[in-house]
């Protein structure tokens, strides 16, 4: 790139007429082009450092300077005066005076030889250079002293035309050929002073200084340090991936994420069945098959305020044709919710299926209404007065999920536990099971990668995976379609039946759990059962610790009169990865709510038992922990049993509102229940001869929890249904962060 030349100032006198020629070193020499070496007195390659670049533009002669690297001056000879050679005519005309050096070193070497061969001249006579042998011009030039000052008898150049600056070669501006001959130039050339640069360091003889070895050592040390840092970082990353880092003391509970409203789907478990396929071929007098067993479902679906029911039906799992069509589909679930009927009156109705007989797993499907999920629910009951599966079992028809816990299974002698899994979705599901017992986690073949196709069911005998377990927890996790699951649990105490139950999912793992609907019968029957080998029927609280850290538990029990004290004060430690049972048979007779506080996430459920007399085999039930009540929970009340709605408020006072719905789908009068803090309240929804199909439960105030306890009229039947989640809970899904 060529720098723009600056305008030179006019010179006066002889010094102004005679400018220094290119290629001449010393004071008054012009700067050489960029990349050329420094030039000394003389011509040829050594003189290129001061050479000027000429160009013609539109018939005019113009000059441009090229930046030159400064070179060290040869050592001055203080004993003699060396004149500068005169400019050659060819150089003044713009002709090159010698070959351009190929690099800096060649230029410097040539400069040294030319300087040695040049003869000093103190006259205006021509002189011949040893390098080229060419005769120089006769124009006189001022002589320079070794210090750079002008010799006597000569006049200094005008300011700006050729004044030398320290650190640069040649401070004299170049002149054209006409100017050198004494003729006035048509246009004065422009020249730009080169930027002031610090000359490169040189030895006294003009050679380059040797590179210090310290720089190489410094570079080697830098490379070694970088390699060391990379090695340390890689070792730290590898150690973090290999070491098993324990989790925090307090786990993060699952959070809810809102989702768009979709169909409400509730899966009712299949009826209880014996595992022995040859039972039907035995003598009816000794047959374990019950002749009086009945399985029925009751479903309730609410309309909007205008009395319009959403499309809903009750059908067997995987079947195209429904068992019952509650309301036909409108084909448009985004229709706005009506706030009143056509006559302007508020008209809230419910479609009710009082008692549909079941032989297979059954699904209640309800379309959304007005972009919101409809208020609906269903429950199934099993009752039998004979056979090995004698007793009462009930379960809510729950929505499928991808992660849930089931507590209360037993696989000891005489106990049978069957895990039933159902896929009501259109997506295949891959299921993984985790088994946790009193001694820790149980590793078993056949618990990973279980495939369940859409619309299919699968029954797994838990005794084949984990035998001789008095208290077993099952963790179900799925990828793909969500599934529903229950455990069919039954006992034989010798030759006598010991009761049946359907174990349903408990509340998600959390640092606080509340179990309500714990009915303790008390008296001698419970003690006598323990002495005859019926230990699995004793009331107890089961707590499973899913994580890797032991749980410090604080257990509180609340009855109708306040808190009831447990033996030992209720403080204990539960080992990580185990199921711990806490006996409850020391409590007096009554209905209780139990609060479990922990420093790590746990899941919990309580076992209750009941008997109708000395010679009557007992029945048992499990009450799983449930979530806090909010607004519009639909509790279906099964027919043919006695029912008690139980509410517990461990922390403070709460208010519960109950709205019954009869079998015709008409709402009844609202009932308000006050629940004092630290107590449990039981309400009979069938009091006064009422027979509601369901009760709408809404709560306010401090946290309150609810369950429904079902009992038989003249038998030792008992079962517990937790109050299902409300409508708002169905429009969100739990997001698990791990524990």
Automatic annotation (TrEMBL):
Compositionally biased intervals (Basic residues): 51-69, 185-196
Domain of life: Bacteria
A Pfam family the protein falls into: DUF5719
Stretches with biased composition (Polar residues): 120-132
Residue numbers spanned by region Disordered: 1-215
Ranges of compositional bias, category Low complexity: 12-22, 78-99, 109-118, 146-165
Name this polypeptide is given: DUF5719 family protein
Organism: Arthrobacter hankyongi
